[in-house]
TrEMBL record:
<dbReference type="GO" id="GO:0043161">
    <property type="term" value="P:proteasome-mediated ubiquitin-dependent protein catabolic process"/>
</dbReference>
<dbReference type="Pfam" id="PF00227">
    <property type="entry name" value="Proteasome"/>
</dbReference>
<keyword id="KW-0888">Threonine protease</keyword>
<dbReference type="GO" id="GO:0005634">
    <property type="term" value="C:nucleus"/>
</dbReference>
<feature type="active site" description="Nucleophile">
    <location>
        <position position="7"/>
    </location>
</feature>
<dbReference type="GO" id="GO:0010499">
    <property type="term" value="P:proteasomal ubiquitin-independent protein catabolic process"/>
</dbReference>
<dbReference type="InterPro" id="IPR000243">
    <property type="entry name" value="Pept_T1A_subB"/>
</dbReference>
<keyword id="KW-0378">Hydrolase</keyword>
<keyword id="KW-0647">Proteasome</keyword>
<dbReference type="InterPro" id="IPR001353">
    <property type="entry name" value="Proteasome_sua/b"/>
</dbReference>
<comment type="similarity">
    <text>Belongs to the peptidase T1B family.</text>
</comment>
<comment type="function">
    <text>Component of the proteasome, a multicatalytic proteinase complex which is characterized by its ability to cleave peptides with Arg, Phe, Tyr, Leu, and Glu adjacent to the leaving group at neutral or slightly basic pH. The proteasome has an ATP-dependent proteolytic activity.</text>
</comment>
<comment type="subunit">
    <text>Component of the proteasome complex.</text>
</comment>
<dbReference type="GO" id="GO:0019774">
    <property type="term" value="C:proteasome core complex, beta-subunit complex"/>
</dbReference>
<protein>
    <recommendedName>
        <fullName>Proteasome subunit beta</fullName>
    </recommendedName>
</protein>
<dbReference type="GO" id="GO:0034515">
    <property type="term" value="C:proteasome storage granule"/>
</dbReference>
<dbReference type="InterPro" id="IPR029055">
    <property type="entry name" value="Ntn_hydrolases_N"/>
</dbReference>
Amino acid sequence: MFTKTGTTIVGVKYKYGVVLAADTRSTNGDIVVNKHCNKIHYISDNIYTCGAGTAADIDRISIYTSKKMNIFEKEYNRIPRVAFAANTASLELFRYMGYKSAALLMGGIDDLGVHLITVNPHGSTFPAEYNAQGSGSLAAIGILEAGYKENMEESEAVKLAVEAIKAGILNDLYSGTEVNMKIIKQDNKKGYKIEDTKFPVSVREDKDIKKFKYPLTSIKITKSEVINMIKESE
């Protein structure tokens, strides 16, 4: 069975940039294979993407798109636009009609401003102010819809993204461990600036654990059987 990134990934635009966040658990069926899987991939100096789906497919489409952006940058001596990167990934995914399992949230900054573009496994794309993908996205998108507002400050966007990933982790067994984050922000000198950060996520707060403690007598035992697993030698 292929290793999958189970996954909750989130993208949030704010006033001066975009926040990309993801959990760090990858799975093989019901087995946790890697607790510290990097799901935020480099495309170019000004563009990064989060990926949900099959780990190998996400790695290959990210490397493919990154190489195309590198060729463009060397040939034209300018940073690539986010829409161009999303279109490049989209055309490659469309060729395989969804058989490459890679859902992407691509974010970055170019000469046209701040962008967040969703690229679906079948190749369709659409821009968004915020979005979530992956097996934990149903829980995450509810947090985003409730908390998002236009022209958010960076601290607000970071907090919202962390809460969205945490919701995915708590409600999806295939998401877990911690929140990995890239903050792509506008900068006066270079035009863009990249920051990395991580946030540990506890499964449940102490106050929540108390809710799930039940007395031993709460379940009535109707039948019991003891099997001796130690065979006595003669």
